Amino acid sequence: MTTIILTYRNRDLSIVKKCLDSLLVQTSKDFYVVLVDYGSEETFKEKLKKCVVNYDFIKLIRCETTRQLWCKSRAINISLKQIDTPYCFVGDVDMIYHPNFVETLHNLNDNQGATYFQVGFLSETESKKSKAFGDYEIKFQSNHEATGMTLYDTELLKSINGYDEFYHGWGSEDTDVHVRLKNAGYNVDFHKENILILHQWHPKTYRSIESKEPFHSQLEQINHQYLEFTRQTKKCKANLRFDWGAYNQSDYDSLNKVDFSCSITNKEAEVKSFVSNVLLSERNKVISVSIITDKNYKSIKQKTKKIFQKKTVAFLKMSTINNLLLECIIDNLRTNAYRFQYNSNKQTIHLIIKL
Protein backbone atom coordinates (compact mmCIF):
# COMPACT_ATOMS: atom_id res chain seq x y z
CA MET A 1 0.00 0.00 0.00
CA THR A 2 1.26 3.47 -0.93
CA THR A 3 -0.01 6.84 0.20
CA ILE A 4 0.01 9.62 -2.39
CA ILE A 5 0.42 13.04 -0.75
CA LEU A 6 -0.96 16.04 -2.62
CA THR A 7 -1.01 19.67 -1.47
CA TYR A 8 -3.40 22.38 -2.55
CA ARG A 9 -4.21 26.07 -2.28
CA ASN A 10 -6.56 28.11 -4.47
CA ARG A 11 -5.94 26.05 -7.61
CA ASP A 12 -8.34 25.86 -10.55
CA LEU A 13 -10.62 22.87 -9.83
CA SER A 14 -10.59 21.76 -13.46
CA ILE A 15 -6.87 21.09 -13.09
CA VAL A 16 -7.42 19.21 -9.85
CA LYS A 17 -10.21 17.12 -11.39
CA LYS A 18 -7.96 15.98 -14.26
CA CYS A 19 -5.36 14.94 -11.72
CA LEU A 20 -7.82 12.98 -9.58
CA ASP A 21 -9.49 11.41 -12.64
CA SER A 22 -6.09 10.06 -13.70
CA LEU A 23 -5.75 8.39 -10.29
CA LEU A 24 -9.29 7.03 -10.54
CA VAL A 25 -8.32 4.84 -13.53
CA GLN A 26 -5.10 3.37 -12.11
CA THR A 27 -4.53 -0.29 -12.95
CA SER A 28 -3.53 -0.88 -9.32
CA LYS A 29 -5.97 0.21 -6.61
CA ASP A 30 -3.52 -0.47 -3.79
CA PHE A 31 -3.15 3.17 -2.77
CA TYR A 32 -4.96 6.07 -1.19
CA VAL A 33 -4.54 9.84 -1.39
CA VAL A 34 -4.10 12.39 1.37
CA LEU A 35 -4.97 15.80 -0.03
CA VAL A 36 -3.96 18.72 2.18
CA ASP A 37 -5.81 21.99 1.59
CA TYR A 38 -3.30 24.41 3.07
CA GLY A 39 -5.22 27.65 3.54
CA SER A 40 -7.46 28.07 0.50
CA GLU A 41 -9.89 30.97 0.33
CA GLU A 42 -13.46 30.06 1.25
CA THR A 43 -14.71 29.72 -2.35
CA PHE A 44 -11.92 27.35 -3.38
CA LYS A 45 -12.17 25.43 -0.11
CA GLU A 46 -15.85 24.63 -0.55
CA LYS A 47 -15.45 23.72 -4.23
CA LEU A 48 -12.63 21.32 -3.39
CA LYS A 49 -14.68 19.72 -0.62
CA LYS A 50 -17.52 19.03 -3.06
CA CYS A 51 -15.10 17.75 -5.70
CA VAL A 52 -13.34 15.11 -3.57
CA VAL A 53 -16.64 13.51 -2.53
CA ASN A 54 -16.57 11.77 -5.91
CA TYR A 55 -13.33 9.91 -5.10
CA ASP A 56 -13.51 7.33 -2.33
CA PHE A 57 -9.72 6.93 -2.15
CA ILE A 58 -9.12 10.48 -0.88
CA LYS A 59 -8.72 11.75 2.65
CA LEU A 60 -9.03 15.56 2.75
CA ILE A 61 -7.17 17.50 5.43
CA ARG A 62 -8.15 21.15 5.74
CA CYS A 63 -5.78 23.62 7.40
CA GLU A 64 -7.05 27.12 8.19
CA THR A 65 -3.77 28.71 7.16
CA THR A 66 -5.32 31.37 4.92
CA ARG A 67 -3.21 34.55 4.79
CA GLN A 68 -0.09 32.63 5.74
CA LEU A 69 2.92 32.14 3.53
CA TRP A 70 2.61 29.03 1.41
CA CYS A 71 4.64 26.25 3.04
CA LYS A 72 4.52 23.08 0.99
CA SER A 73 6.93 21.41 3.41
CA ARG A 74 4.60 21.87 6.37
CA ALA A 75 1.56 20.76 4.34
CA ILE A 76 3.40 17.56 3.38
CA ASN A 77 4.58 16.97 6.95
CA ILE A 78 1.09 17.39 8.38
CA SER A 79 0.05 14.51 6.14
CA LEU A 80 3.24 12.51 6.75
CA LYS A 81 2.63 12.53 10.52
CA GLN A 82 -0.76 10.85 9.96
CA ILE A 83 0.10 8.04 7.54
CA ASP A 84 1.34 4.53 8.31
CA THR A 85 1.73 2.92 4.88
CA PRO A 86 5.23 1.55 4.13
CA TYR A 87 5.68 3.94 1.22
CA CYS A 88 4.53 7.40 0.25
CA PHE A 89 4.69 9.38 -2.95
CA VAL A 90 4.81 13.19 -2.81
CA GLY A 91 3.16 14.63 -5.91
CA ASP A 92 1.27 17.71 -7.09
CA VAL A 93 -2.38 18.35 -7.91
CA ASP A 94 -1.46 19.89 -11.27
CA MET A 95 -0.18 16.56 -12.65
CA ILE A 96 -1.83 13.90 -14.79
CA TYR A 97 -0.66 10.37 -13.91
CA HIS A 98 -0.26 7.46 -16.33
CA PRO A 99 -2.75 4.59 -15.67
CA ASN A 100 0.20 2.34 -14.74
CA PHE A 101 1.78 4.88 -12.42
CA VAL A 102 0.78 3.29 -9.08
CA GLU A 103 1.73 -0.12 -10.41
CA THR A 104 5.16 1.28 -11.24
CA LEU A 105 5.45 2.69 -7.71
CA HIS A 106 4.89 -0.78 -6.29
CA ASN A 107 7.58 -2.24 -8.57
CA LEU A 108 10.05 0.34 -7.23
CA ASN A 109 9.19 -0.11 -3.56
CA ASP A 110 12.26 -2.20 -2.78
CA ASN A 111 14.59 0.72 -3.50
CA GLN A 112 16.67 1.62 -0.41
CA GLY A 113 16.15 5.36 -0.53
CA ALA A 114 13.97 7.39 -2.87
CA THR A 115 12.99 7.51 -6.55
CA TYR A 116 11.88 10.62 -8.37
CA PHE A 117 10.27 10.85 -11.78
CA GLN A 118 10.82 12.68 -15.02
CA VAL A 119 7.86 14.90 -15.95
CA GLY A 120 6.46 15.89 -19.33
CA PHE A 121 5.28 19.50 -19.50
CA LEU A 122 2.19 20.42 -21.51
CA SER A 123 1.55 23.73 -23.24
CA GLU A 124 -1.32 25.98 -22.22
CA THR A 125 -3.37 24.84 -25.21
CA GLU A 126 -2.63 21.14 -24.71
CA SER A 127 -3.43 21.36 -20.98
CA LYS A 128 -6.99 22.42 -21.73
CA LYS A 129 -7.67 19.29 -23.78
CA SER A 130 -9.01 16.00 -22.44
CA LYS A 131 -7.17 13.04 -23.93
CA ALA A 132 -5.88 9.60 -23.13
CA PHE A 133 -2.49 9.89 -21.38
CA GLY A 134 -0.47 8.71 -24.37
CA ASP A 135 -2.18 11.09 -26.77
CA TYR A 136 -0.97 14.31 -25.13
CA GLU A 137 1.72 16.23 -26.99
CA ILE A 138 4.60 16.98 -24.61
CA LYS A 139 6.22 20.39 -25.02
CA PHE A 140 9.40 19.59 -23.06
CA GLN A 141 10.67 17.20 -20.39
CA SER A 142 12.19 17.81 -16.97
CA ASN A 143 15.76 16.75 -16.22
CA HIS A 144 17.42 15.40 -13.07
CA GLU A 145 17.34 18.85 -11.45
CA ALA A 146 13.51 18.80 -11.14
CA THR A 147 13.08 16.80 -7.95
CA GLY A 148 9.42 17.23 -7.00
CA MET A 149 7.74 13.93 -7.82
CA THR A 150 9.29 11.46 -5.37
CA LEU A 151 8.57 8.01 -3.92
CA TYR A 152 9.87 7.49 -0.35
CA ASP A 153 10.13 4.80 2.26
CA THR A 154 7.78 6.40 4.80
CA GLU A 155 9.80 5.57 7.92
CA LEU A 156 12.98 6.73 6.22
CA LEU A 157 11.41 10.10 5.41
CA LYS A 158 10.15 10.40 8.99
CA SER A 159 13.61 9.51 10.33
CA ILE A 160 15.05 12.73 8.84
CA ASN A 161 12.08 14.76 10.21
CA GLY A 162 10.31 15.00 6.86
CA TYR A 163 10.52 18.09 4.72
CA ASP A 164 12.36 21.14 6.06
CA GLU A 165 9.73 23.69 7.10
CA PHE A 166 12.16 26.58 6.74
CA TYR A 167 11.22 26.64 3.06
CA HIS A 168 8.32 29.01 2.42
CA GLY A 169 7.04 30.31 -0.87
CA TRP A 170 8.27 28.19 -3.74
CA GLY A 171 11.44 26.33 -4.52
CA SER A 172 14.17 24.03 -3.17
CA GLU A 173 12.21 22.08 -0.52
CA ASP A 174 12.11 18.92 -2.68
CA THR A 175 15.80 19.03 -3.54
CA ASP A 176 16.61 19.61 0.13
CA VAL A 177 15.08 16.23 1.08
CA HIS A 178 17.10 14.49 -1.61
CA VAL A 179 20.30 16.17 -0.42
CA ARG A 180 19.69 15.15 3.21
CA LEU A 181 18.95 11.55 2.21
CA LYS A 182 22.21 11.42 0.27
CA ASN A 183 24.02 12.99 3.24
CA ALA A 184 22.63 10.13 5.35
CA GLY A 185 24.01 7.57 2.90
CA TYR A 186 20.84 6.61 0.98
CA ASN A 187 20.27 6.31 -2.76
CA VAL A 188 18.15 8.80 -4.68
CA ASP A 189 17.37 7.49 -8.16
CA PHE A 190 15.97 9.33 -11.18
CA HIS A 191 13.32 7.38 -13.11
CA LYS A 192 13.51 8.50 -16.76
CA GLU A 193 12.83 5.28 -18.64
CA ASN A 194 9.38 6.53 -19.63
CA ILE A 195 7.15 9.52 -18.94
CA LEU A 196 4.51 8.61 -16.36
CA ILE A 197 3.60 12.12 -15.20
CA LEU A 198 2.38 15.14 -17.17
CA HIS A 199 2.38 18.68 -15.82
CA GLN A 200 -0.64 20.83 -16.67
CA TRP A 201 0.11 24.45 -17.52
CA HIS A 202 -1.36 27.09 -15.19
CA PRO A 203 -0.64 30.75 -14.44
CA LYS A 204 1.52 31.54 -11.43
CA THR A 205 -1.13 33.66 -9.71
CA TYR A 206 0.72 33.65 -6.39
CA ARG A 207 3.33 35.96 -7.95
CA SER A 208 0.81 38.49 -9.32
CA ILE A 209 0.24 41.90 -7.74
CA GLU A 210 -3.47 41.05 -7.42
CA SER A 211 -2.75 38.08 -5.16
CA LYS A 212 -3.87 38.48 -1.54
CA GLU A 213 -1.45 35.84 -0.30
CA PRO A 214 1.62 36.96 1.66
CA PHE A 215 4.65 37.25 -0.59
CA HIS A 216 8.34 37.84 0.15
CA SER A 217 10.21 39.22 -2.84
CA GLN A 218 13.49 37.42 -2.10
CA LEU A 219 12.40 34.06 -0.68
CA GLU A 220 13.46 32.04 -3.70
CA GLN A 221 17.03 33.38 -3.42
CA ILE A 222 17.05 32.80 0.36
CA ASN A 223 15.75 29.24 -0.14
CA HIS A 224 18.46 28.56 -2.70
CA GLN A 225 21.23 29.75 -0.39
CA TYR A 226 19.76 27.79 2.53
CA LEU A 227 19.91 24.67 0.36
CA GLU A 228 23.58 25.34 -0.39
CA PHE A 229 24.36 25.37 3.34
CA THR A 230 22.45 22.09 3.74
CA ARG A 231 24.84 20.61 1.20
CA GLN A 232 27.96 22.13 2.76
CA THR A 233 27.12 21.16 6.35
CA LYS A 234 26.10 17.61 5.36
CA LYS A 235 22.86 18.03 7.30
CA CYS A 236 20.59 14.99 7.56
CA LYS A 237 17.79 15.97 9.95
CA ALA A 238 15.65 19.08 9.57
CA ASN A 239 13.29 20.97 11.90
CA LEU A 240 15.39 20.43 15.03
CA ARG A 241 14.05 23.60 16.71
CA PHE A 242 10.39 23.02 15.85
CA ASP A 243 7.73 20.31 16.10
CA TRP A 244 7.51 19.34 12.44
CA GLY A 245 4.13 18.56 10.90
CA ALA A 246 2.36 20.34 13.77
CA TYR A 247 -1.11 21.81 13.31
CA ASN A 248 -3.52 22.78 16.08
CA GLN A 249 -6.94 24.02 14.96
CA SER A 250 -7.65 25.61 18.35
CA ASP A 251 -4.71 27.98 17.83
CA TYR A 252 -6.34 29.26 14.65
CA ASP A 253 -9.73 29.56 16.35
CA SER A 254 -8.09 31.76 19.00
CA LEU A 255 -7.10 34.36 16.38
CA ASN A 256 -10.67 35.68 16.63
CA LYS A 257 -10.01 36.84 20.20
CA VAL A 258 -7.19 39.42 20.36
CA ASP A 259 -5.43 40.04 23.70
CA PHE A 260 -3.35 43.03 22.64
CA SER A 261 -3.55 45.31 19.61
CA CYS A 262 -1.46 48.27 18.53
CA SER A 263 -0.78 50.52 15.57
CA ILE A 264 2.68 51.64 14.53
CA THR A 265 4.18 53.52 11.62
CA ASN A 266 7.03 52.72 9.28
CA LYS A 267 9.56 54.48 11.53
CA GLU A 268 12.48 52.09 11.79
CA ALA A 269 12.62 52.45 15.60
CA GLU A 270 8.94 51.57 15.99
CA VAL A 271 9.14 48.52 13.78
CA LYS A 272 12.30 47.10 15.36
CA SER A 273 11.03 47.79 18.88
CA PHE A 274 7.78 45.97 18.12
CA VAL A 275 9.66 42.96 16.78
CA SER A 276 11.97 42.74 19.80
CA ASN A 277 9.62 43.73 22.62
CA VAL A 278 6.38 42.17 21.41
CA LEU A 279 6.73 39.69 18.57
CA LEU A 280 9.75 37.88 20.01
CA SER A 281 9.03 38.44 23.72
CA GLU A 282 5.32 38.00 24.44
CA ARG A 283 3.94 34.53 25.10
CA ASN A 284 0.45 32.97 25.25
CA LYS A 285 -1.21 36.02 23.76
CA VAL A 286 -2.94 36.84 20.49
CA ILE A 287 -1.33 40.00 19.14
CA SER A 288 -2.70 42.29 16.45
CA VAL A 289 -0.62 45.03 14.82
CA SER A 290 -1.43 47.48 12.03
CA ILE A 291 1.40 49.31 10.29
CA ILE A 292 0.77 52.49 8.32
CA THR A 293 2.94 55.10 6.62
CA ASP A 294 4.07 57.89 8.93
CA LYS A 295 2.78 61.35 7.94
CA ASN A 296 6.37 62.68 7.84
CA TYR A 297 7.63 59.92 5.57
CA LYS A 298 9.03 61.60 2.43
CA SER A 299 7.92 65.00 3.73
CA ILE A 300 9.55 68.20 2.49
CA LYS A 301 10.89 68.78 6.00
CA GLN A 302 12.66 65.42 6.01
CA LYS A 303 14.04 65.94 2.51
CA THR A 304 15.34 69.39 3.45
CA LYS A 305 17.11 68.02 6.54
CA LYS A 306 18.80 65.40 4.41
CA ILE A 307 20.03 68.04 1.98
CA PHE A 308 21.62 70.00 4.82
CA GLN A 309 22.89 66.78 6.42
CA LYS A 310 20.88 67.30 9.58
CA LYS A 311 19.62 64.49 11.78
CA THR A 312 16.49 62.86 10.34
CA VAL A 313 14.09 60.15 11.44
CA ALA A 314 14.90 56.76 9.90
CA PHE A 315 12.04 55.15 7.99
CA LEU A 316 11.64 51.77 6.33
CA LYS A 317 9.87 51.09 3.06
CA MET A 318 6.68 49.11 3.58
CA SER A 319 8.02 46.42 1.24
CA THR A 320 11.10 46.16 3.49
CA ILE A 321 8.90 45.84 6.59
CA ASN A 322 6.86 43.16 4.81
CA ASN A 323 10.01 41.11 4.17
CA LEU A 324 11.40 41.75 7.66
CA LEU A 325 8.26 40.51 9.44
CA LEU A 326 7.90 37.46 7.22
CA GLU A 327 11.54 36.53 7.80
CA CYS A 328 10.98 36.88 11.55
CA ILE A 329 8.00 34.52 11.34
CA ILE A 330 9.89 31.96 9.24
CA ASP A 331 12.93 32.00 11.52
CA ASN A 332 11.20 32.09 14.89
CA LEU A 333 7.42 31.61 14.69
CA ARG A 334 6.78 29.37 11.69
CA THR A 335 4.50 26.94 13.56
CA ASN A 336 2.41 29.71 15.15
CA ALA A 337 -1.10 30.48 13.93
CA TYR A 338 -1.17 33.84 12.18
CA ARG A 339 -2.76 35.91 9.43
CA PHE A 340 -0.70 38.42 7.46
CA GLN A 341 -1.72 40.93 4.82
CA TYR A 342 0.31 43.55 2.99
CA ASN A 343 -1.69 45.97 0.85
CA SER A 344 0.84 47.45 -1.56
CA ASN A 345 -1.70 49.91 -2.98
CA LYS A 346 -2.71 51.39 0.38
CA GLN A 347 0.75 50.79 1.86
CA THR A 348 -0.53 49.06 4.98
CA ILE A 349 0.37 45.85 6.79
CA HIS A 350 -1.81 43.93 9.21
CA LEU A 351 -0.69 40.96 11.29
CA ILE A 352 -2.59 38.84 13.81
CA ILE A 353 -0.57 36.09 15.48
CA LYS A 354 -0.89 33.73 18.44
CA LEU A 355 2.35 33.83 20.41
Helix content: 25-40%
Point out poorly predicted stretches.
none
Please give the CATH class of the largest domain: Alpha Beta
What is the H/E order? EHEHEHEEHEEHEEHHEEHHEHEHHEE
Number of strands: 15
The CATH superfamily of the largest domain turns out to be Spore Coat Polysaccharide Biosynthesis Protein SpsA, Chain A
- The fraction of residues in strands falls at 15-25%
CATH architecture of the largest domain: Alpha-Beta Complex
Keywords: Transferase
Pfam families: Glyco_transf_7C, Glycos_transf_2
Protein name: Glycosyl transferase family 2
Organism: Yeosuana aromativorans
Précis, in short:
The chain has 355 residues and is of the alpha/beta class.
What labels describe this entry?
Translation Initiation Factor IF3, 355 residues, four-stranded mixed beta sheet, 2 domains, 21% strand, Spore Coat Polysaccharide Biosynthesis Protein SpsA, Chain A, 12 helices, seven-stranded mixed beta sheet, alpha/beta, elongated
Structure, described:
One of its GO terms (molecular function) is transferase activity. This is Glycosyl transferase family 2. With 355 residues, this protein is an alpha/beta fold. It has two domains: 2-233, Spore Coat Polysaccharide Biosynthesis Protein SpsA, Chain A (Alpha-Beta Complex), CATH 3.90.550; 249-354, Translation Initiation Factor IF3 (2-Layer Sandwich). It contains twelve helices and 15 strands. The chain has helices spanning 13-24, 42-52, 72-80, 101-107, 124-127, 154-159, 173-183, 219-233, 249-253, 268-279, 300-307, 318-332; strands spanning 2-8, 31-38, 58-63, 87-90, 95-97, 113-117, 119-121, 140-141, 150-153, 187-191, 197-199, 260-265, 286-292, 338-343, 348-354. The strands form three sheets. Strands 3-2-1-4-9-6-10 form a seven-stranded mixed β-sheet, sandwiched between helices. A four-stranded mixed β-sheet has the order 5-11-7-8. Helix 1 (13-24) links the parallel strand 1 (2-8) and strand 2 (31-38). Helix 7 (173-183) packs parallel to helix 8 (219-233). The chain starts with a strand and ends with a strand. 36% of the residues are buried.
